[in-house]
Amino acid sequence: MHFQDGSMFPENQEDLVITCAPYGPEWEPEDFPADIPITMEEQIQKAVDCYEAGATVLHLHVRELDGKGSKRLSKFNELIAGVREAVPEMIIQVGGSISFAPESDGEAAKWLSDDTRHMLAELTPVPDQVTIAINTNQMNIIEQMCDADIAGTSLADPELKYAYQEMTIPAGPEWVEEHIRRLSANGIQTHFQLSGVSQLETVERMMRRGAANVPLILTWVAIGGGFDAPNIYNLANFVRACPDGSVLTLESSMLNVLPINMMAIAMGLHVRCGIEDNIWTQRRDRKMSSVEQIQQLVRISEEFGRKVATAEEARRIYRLGEFYSSADETLARNGFAPNLHRLRA
Hints:
- This protein has 345 residues and is of the alpha/beta class.
- The chain has one domain (12-333): TIM Barrel.
- Helix content is 37%, strand content 12%.
- Helix 7 (197-209) links the parallel strand 7 and strand 8 (217-222).
- Helix 1 (40-53) packs across helix 2, helix 7 (197-209) crosses helix 12 and helix 9 runs parallel beside helix 10 (290-304).
- The longest helix has 15 residues, at 290-304.
- The protein is globular.
- Its cofactor is Zn(2+).
- InterPro entries: Aldolase_TIM, BKACE.
- Pfam families: BKACE (PF05853).
């Protein structure tokens, strides 16, 4: 991405797309009973509340009635249908892990099997996006958390903490390319969740081979534990590597979320918030709901002079419905240099 003179002026920036992640599969309902929805009606209403607060993208996970993260695709179908009816304008982004929460006490936190995750391409109604990780990687969501972050929550339990500490993402090249192919065939946009520049380079290589003929819609996930740490050096390095045609959202963890999002707002990038990422105010004097976090970002963006995207504008920015017919078209639309054979032609 290039930052020319005037790039920080709000009139030269896209409207801000706010992604909310209000379902928080790593938390137990007792960790934040005022803001963790359990019944299907509550989960649908949470999407409505987030949309009305200013979020246009819903990062979706599902809970069972016992409060556990659901791994049943039928429950995903039910929630997607309910959200579609309640807020049809909202962009539905299904979390590619389905749910990484342990199935029962003492079990590991883990992503589901390759075959199960492929079934996300068969969801009905069809979501707008499914997130995808690139390259099998550690995902220790605890590493950047301090004792104050988890005090009084279920993550303070040593067994549960260990389960999340040891979590990995299975995302080998054969599975990734097949998953993108299946999503695209069903009109679902791939949303890349990347840990750093090396994974971005893998995506670029796939596009150069014609194995990912899709828009480069991505999130920089700065949570440590196998992902980049949330600091300005890593951020600048990642942003410099992104081509001008990409659409970049920033994601972080706990008290890093707000400052990282403020950087995104200032730089013309996009933001993500919600209790999946953080449950505290910056002073840790109380827990902060997903709706409050959205409202905070709306206020800050308005003070920067940057408008918050409507649902219609967010769909245009995300280039929903776009798929490409060749590697050459994909590279050109995403702002990459052409393949070398094109340069020699």
